[in-house]
Automatic annotation (TrEMBL):
Pfam families: EFR3_ARM (PF21052). GO terms for cellular component: plasma membrane. Belongs to the EFR3 family. GO terms for biological process: protein localization to plasma membrane. This is EFR3 homolog Ba (S. cerevisiae).
Length: 650
């Protein structure tokens, strides 16, 4: 053996012929049942493989793998163990009847081949599809064998602390960790095919586990390649069942969270295009009842509840990707998603987009390009949309986790128990309020007039007003907020056409908000006046307080907050009350006059109509209002796609 090794090292060009000769001898000896010679041939080949480190041993490795395959195909377990323990590569799935000892030996052999070929720079050989298509499914097969595996009591396995599943996972991670940029596709494709062939997408658990291993094992700069393959696979399964597509979407969502620590980079546009395409297709399937353009007898049955679940999963996945983006892009993405939702009733799913939204710069988080259309959605007839928009605004403005401290809405004599986190307004906060405050106030005022508003709307309005006061208020803003609260009181008194509940709720909102502001300003006489009015309401008209909003009677006298008295009090404390002496009257714009819009589609009509009004051309085109139907929204998705997508990324 020493002479043979010396000869091979001295003349590496002869190594290929040595391997071919040993392979031929082994095949002949196996056929003649001369197992002693088989062991000698394998031992010789093992030692040569470990001793030789030249860069041109491809044919020798091929001879070695041929010998290993010959041993694995033999019907003798001892020969199979010999082959796998000789740093073998497994070319087929393990048979169910083999014992754990053989399985462990095979996995270790595969691990050894991976290490050996990589160290000898033979990646091109090991990463070829013909090898990966056999290696990866073998590993995945063993990963699935969580239960029902009994260890052999033999001394060899007692020394092993790892189970076959644990060893397989370690081997799989090592394989993926060695994958270079050009090899990622060949390594991931067999995973996708294995999940397809064994119908593992629907259960989701194993598929998610596999891709968590993939995402955590590969080099972080390559993670976007995995996302691209998943997106392509989702497209390829567009006409598969909703449960299969939902499983793929779930995997993409989990992978997006992991990828956030790496580089999402070039996949952003592709992610949103693919996911929104799937959302549109799902709605199409739901409306037509078929996976084909024209329904036919052979079409699969569409299960509406599964399609709805898929739609929600897609929206949440878009939210997961949005969370990995910088704040300014996340803001745009939220608007992008709102404009893409094609099915009524799906709006609450968008709450996941604002979850965890944190931004130190409010100007970046709420740019004009995002705030303008977002506020316009607060004027729609659909109560769900209005509630969603309020929730988005609350999530963005709340930078100190104060939102939950305003719930439930109630009169509190000492707000210190809320433990509100209040910081001094930054320069960016002041600039934001100087630029956008009047528009915010106007839309809050108009939102209070919506007749379809219920308790949740007024609770959200109070939380929004409270956060503005805590997060963004300087002295001038405080005065404007008091004006707004008093204007809401006047609104409830004068707008007799409003429902009784709405008028009571507006009175209650005004009271609880002034109770908050007066304690934040720490002006004793202001607090005293507010406290006196609240006490009078408790005795005379408790239904004008948030705890007991029931009915509306004639309201006058001491149960109302007096604007002149508040102005006099604040003026004595150093506040500039010139603005407070003037009642707040919102400046209604053309957009607000057309506030009774029923859907996102009507927003498009409004924008087009306003553009035509501002056009220098004499002729102005009027656009009819659209009705809020699934079919209408489906069409609107196509109209909005190019406009909103360009707004997000350019």
């Amino acid at each position: 053996m020493e002479k043979l090794t010396f000869y091979a090292l001295s003349a590496p060009e002869k190594l290929d012929r040595i391997g071919a000769y040993l392979s031929e001898r082994l095949s002949r000896d196996v056929a003649r049942h001369r197992y002693g010679y088989v062991c000698i041939a394998m031992e010789a080949l093992d030692q040569l493989l470990m001793a030789c480190h030249c860069q041109t041993i491809n044919l020798f490795v091929e001879s070695f793998l041929t010998m290993v395959r010959k041993l694995l195909e033999a019907d003798k377990p001892n020969l199979q163990i010999l082959g796998t323990n000789s740093v073998s590569e497994i070319y087929c799935l393990y048979l169910f009847g083999l014992c754990v000892r053989i399985r462990m030996a095979g996995i270790r052999g595969l691990q050894g081949v991976v290490r050996k070929t990589v160290n000898d720079e033979l990646q091109a050989n090991i990463w070829d599809p013909q090898h990966m298509d056999k290696i990866v499914p073998s590993l995945l097969f063993n990963l699935q064998q969580e239960e029902g595996i009994e260890r052999s009591p033999s001394p060899e396995t007692e020394k092993e602390k790892e189970s076959p599943v644990e060893l397989t996972e370690r081997c799989f991670r090592e394989l993926l960790g060695r994958a270079a940029y050009g090899n990622i596709k060949n390594a991931v494709k067999p995973v996708l095919m294995h999940l397809d062939n064994h119908s593992l997408w629907e259960s989701k658990t194993f598929a998610v586990r596999c891709f968590k291993i993939v995402m955590y094992s590969i080099q972080s700069q390559h993670s976007h390649l995995v996302i691209q393959q998943l997106l392509g696979h989702l497209d390829a399964n567009s006409k598969n069942s909703a449960r299969v597509r939902a499983g793929i979407v779930e995997v993409i969502s989990e992978a997006a969270v992991i990828e956030a620590s790496g580089s999402i980079g070039p996949t952003v546009l592709e992610v949103f295009n693919t996911l929104l395409k799937q959302l549109r297709l799902s709605v199409d399937y739901e409306l037509t009842g078929s996976y084909d353009s024209f329904a036919n007898m052979g079409s699969k049955v569409i299960k509406v509840h599964e399609e709805r679940q898929l739609q929600e999963a897609v929206i949440k996945t878009v939210g997961s990707f949005a969370y990995t983006l910088p704040p300014y892009q996340r803001s745009e993405v939220m608007l992008f998603i709102i404009g893409k939702i094609p099915v009524p009733g799906m709006y609450p799913a968008l709450g996941s987009v604002t979850a965890g939204f944190q931004s130190t710069n409010i100007l970046t988080a709420l740019p004009t390009s995002f705030l303008d259309p977002l506020l316009s959605f607060t004027l729609m007839e659909d109560a769900e949309i209005r509630l969603l928009v309020l929730d988005i605004l609350i999530g963005i403005i709340d930078r100190h986790d104060n939102r939950h401290k305003f719930s439930p809405v109630r009169i509190i004599s000492d707000i210190s128990v809320l433990k509100l986190k209040v910081d001094k307004c930054s320069r960016q906060d002041n600039l934001f309020m100087k630029k956008h405050s009047q528009r915010l106030y106007r839309h809050i005022y108009l939102a209070c007039k919506e007749e379809s508003s219920v308790q949740r709307h007024f609770e959200s309005l109070y939380t929004l007003l409270g956060l503005i006061c805590v997060e963004l208020a300087n002295e001038e803003v405080v005065v404007d907020l008091i004006r707004l609260a008093l204007a809401l009181q006047d609104l409830a008194l004068t707008e007799e056409a409003l429902p009784v509940y709405t008028r009571c709720a507006i009175h209650a909102l005004s009271a609880v908000y002034l109770n908050l502001i007066c304690q934040l300003t720490t002006v004793p006489t202001f607090c005293q006046h507010v406290h006196e009015v609240i006490e009078s309401r408790k005795k005379l008209v408790p239904f004008l307080l948030p705890e007991d909003v029931l009915k509306l009677e004639k309201v006058e006298g001491e149960v109302l907050f007096v604007q002149t008295k508040i102005a006099e009090i604040l003026g004595g404390s150093g506040y500039n009350t010139e603005r407070l002496a003037t009642a707040y009257i919102p400046q209604i714009t053309d957009e607000d006059r057309l506030s009774k819009r029923k859907s996102i589609g009507d927003t498009v009509s409004l924008q087009l109509e306003m553009e035509s009004r501002n056009s220098p051309e004499k002729e102005q085109v009027k656009h009819p209002r659209l009705h809020y139907t699934a079919e209408c929204l489906y069409v609107c998705v196509h109209l909005l796609e190019s406009y909103l997508l360009s707004a997000v990324f350019f």
